[in-house]
From TrEMBL, chain A:
Keywords: Acetylation, Cytoplasm, Nucleus, RNA-binding, rRNA processing. One of its GO terms (cellular component) is nucleoplasm. Residues 21-152, 155-219 form the Exoribonuclease phosphorolytic domain. Component of the RNA exosome core complex (Exo-9), composed of EXOSC1, EXOSC2, EXOSC3, EXOSC4, EXOSC5, EXOSC6, EXOSC7, EXOSC8 and EXOSC9; within the complex interacts with EXOSC2, EXOSC7 and EXOSC9. The catalytically inactive RNA exosome core complex (Exo-9) associates with the catalytic subunit EXOSC10/RRP6. Exo-9 may associate with DIS3 to form the nucleolar exosome complex, or DIS3L to form the cytoplasmic exosome complex. Pfam families: RNase_PH, RNase_PH_C. It comes from Mytilus edulis. This is Exosome complex component RRP41.
UniProtKB/TrEMBL annotation, chain B:
Its main location: cytoplasm. Transmembrane segments: none annotated. GO terms for molecular function: mRNA 3'-UTR AU-rich region binding. GO terms for biological process: exonucleolytic trimming to generate mature 3'-end of 5.8S rRNA from tricistronic rRNA transcript (SSU-rRNA, 5.8S rRNA, LSU-rRNA); nuclear mRNA surveillance; nuclear polyadenylation-dependent rRNA catabolic process; rRNA catabolic process; TRAMP-dependent tRNA surveillance pathway; U1 snRNA 3'-end processing; U4 snRNA 3'-end processing; U5 snRNA 3'-end processing. This is Exosome complex component RRP45. Gene3D superfamilies: GHMP Kinase, N-terminal domain. Keywords: Cytoplasm, Exosome, Nucleus, RNA-binding, rRNA processing. It is found in: Cytoplasm; Nucleus, Nucleolus. GO terms for cellular component: cytoplasmic exosome (RNase complex); nuclear exosome (RNase complex); nucleolus. Belongs to the RNase PH family.
Length: 247, 304
């Protein structure tokens, strides 16, 4: 994708954003009735649905049972119509398997797993439309779904990606910026303490610039947090109003 | 077979020793185990020993049709094989989570950093390109498979020679080694993975964890870097919470380690090149050091 100018001389990106500007985030909690928790999120054109079941008894093989904490079971899948070219397998390929592992790892660290020994929590994530930052949107959606399910966590988990173009770090990259060959850094944090739960980087980034890019990504996670937090508050007050509770 | 768990006693022992800045094998926290690189008789075959961990990488090539989106690019394919030979935990057939993890890290490290120039692997655009396949076989598992595999893979790629081809219209002639000298791949840079394991919520960190140290750790961070100090892949696994400073500290250590390892690889490649050009003996057999006494006495068999 050489020749595409990712950052104009005026300092604007391809889709008209400033370097540290996120895409518009719209989200909704409690989109399904059967699931214990569910959420839908749109980050720009990336759209993700997440559902949470549990905590419930261990399903499937008892060998997976953990005596001291809950088993977090994740499944990441991408709808066949989510990408430009129709996908053959929605899940089970190596990339999805990797994503599943990363989600499991992230939420294992963030959920208060010691509260539900011998049980299981299922997190199902479905990417409906993919436009870069699939992992980030998945984590944010799953966080909301877990909150909707009322599962205790240490904090929100907020994820955001960042890249580095023309000596400038840029936040929340879309598909075009992702596929242009520049570095891609994905961070998931607990925003209150700025602790990093998950960190991944692809393509080449000079070591000197690492600090700048992480800083921007961590800051963007905080921005994501503000939006998610507001959504949760709105959702709860809406619920309590409909039940006629005083608050 | 299920993994034998580490006993609580042993776990505590390792933790306590780490608290006193001691490791089981007497290394310092940032030391690597002894690294040995040996090459096979054929080009593109490389065996790397990192302490007791042993990995074999074999590079091969074939002519295939390119991907539709990239008609003028060759293909690099990475495959990691965890056979039960390495550890009874590994099962035949379906790839375990660990296998997928190692495979993806290597793939990201080698492919997405574009260390091998894939454009030079094009024979006829849109029709024929070289597919370079790196098979990484883990032969013995004693911790830190990722580092060992990444060293083996990139060394094998640098060691590999592909046959020369001549294009005549739409005909492609692949020359044998006797006709034309085979060509090396153009390797732009050498990304090498360095693993760090964390203990006590990131209070202690070790470079190149052994198998037992890996069983005790809270989590692991893998940094793939080349000698130009460019980070090619970075990944944190395990359930732990990190701060930014810890990440930066690791990347600083990685710079030093990568420089050392790259020099070592270059030296090994140079030694092998000299042995080959001087007509000395080379291959795995030469790399085996027989410094053990196998028998004290040998009785000649009687002639009948």
């Amino acid at each position: 994708m050489a020749g595409v100018n990712l950052l104009s001389d005026q300092g604007y990106r391809i889709d008209g954003r400033k370097p540290n500007e996120l895409r518009r985030i719209q989200c909704k909690l409690g989109v399904f009735k059967q699931a214990d928790g569910s959420a839908y999120i749109e980050q720009g054109n990336t759209k993700v649905l997440a559902t949470v079941y549990g905590p419930h008894e261990i399903r499937g093989s008892r060998a997976k049972l953990l005596l001291d904490r809950v088993l977090v079971n994740c499944q990441y899948s991408m709808a066949t119509f989510s990408t430009g070219e129709r996908k053959r397998r929605p899940r089970g390929d190596r990339k999805s398997q990797e994503m599943t592992m990363h989600l499991k790892q992230t939420f294992d660290a963030a959920i208060m797993t010691n509260l539900y020994p011998r049980s299981q929590i299922d997190i199902f994530v479905e990417v409906l439309q993919s436009d870069g930052g699939n992992y980030c949107a998945s984590v944010n959606a799953a966080t909301l779904a877990l909150i909707d399910a009322g599962i205790p966590m240490k904090d929100f988990v907020c994820a955001c990606s960042a890249s580095f173009v023309n000596d400038n770090p840029i936040a929340d990259i879309n598909y075009l910026e992702e596929s242009s060959g520049g570095p891609e850094l994905i961070v998931a944090t607990l925003p209150k303490s700025d602790q990093i739960v998950f960190l991944e980087q692809n393509s080449r980034l000079h070591e000197d610039n690492l600090s700048k890019v992480i800083d921007l990504a961590v800051k963007s996670c905080k921005d994501v947090y503000t939006v998610l937090d507001q959504t949760v508050r709105d959702h709860v007050s809406e619920l309590s109003n409909s039940h006629g509770w005083d608050h | 077979m299920r993994e034998t768990p580490l006993s609580n006693c042993e776990r505590e022992f390792i933790r306590k020793a780490l608290g006193e800045r001691k490791r089981l094998d007497g290394r310092q926290a940032y030391d690597y185990r002894t690294l040995k690189i040996a090459f096979g008789y054929d080009r593109g075959c490389c065996r790397v020993d990192l302490g007791q961990t042993r990995v074999l990488a074999q590079v091969s090539c074939e002519i295939t049709s390119p991907k539709q989106q990239r008609p003028s690019d060759g293909v690099l394919f990475v495959n990691v094989e965890l056979s039960p030979m390495a550890s009874p935990v590994f099962e035949v057939g379906r790839m375990s989570d660990q296998g997928v993890e190692i495979n993806r890290i290597l793939e990201r490290c080698l492919k997405e950093s574009r260390c091998v120039d894939t454009e030079s692997l094009c024979i006829i655009a849109g029709e024929k390109v070289w597919q370079i396949r790196v098979d990484v076989h883990v032969m013995n598992h004693d911790g830190n498979l990722i580092d060992c595999s990444s060293i083996a893979a990139i060394t094998a790629l640098a060691h590999f020679r592909r046959p020369d081809v001549t294009v005549d219209g739409t005909d492609v002639i692949v020359h044998t080694i006797e006709e034309k000298d085979p060509l090396p791949l153009s390797v732009h840079h050498m990304p090498i993975c360095v693993s760090f394991s964390f203990y006590e919520q990131g209070k202690f960190l070790l470079v190149d964890p052994s198998d037992k140290e890996e069983k005790v750790m809270d989590g692991k961070m893998v940094i793939g870097m080349n000698k130009h100090r460019e980070i090619c892949s970075l990944q944190v696994t395990g359930q732990m919470l990190l701060l930014k400073d810890q990440v930066l500290r690791c990347s600083n250590i990685a710079v030093v380690k990568v420089t050392e390892i790259t020099e070592w690889i270059q030296k090994a490649l140079e030694n092998d090149r000299q042995a080959r050009s001087n007509g000395e003996r080379f291959g795995f057999r030469e790399a085996v050091v027989m410094d053990t006494v196998t028998t004290n006495q040998m009785n000649p068999e009687k002639l009948k």
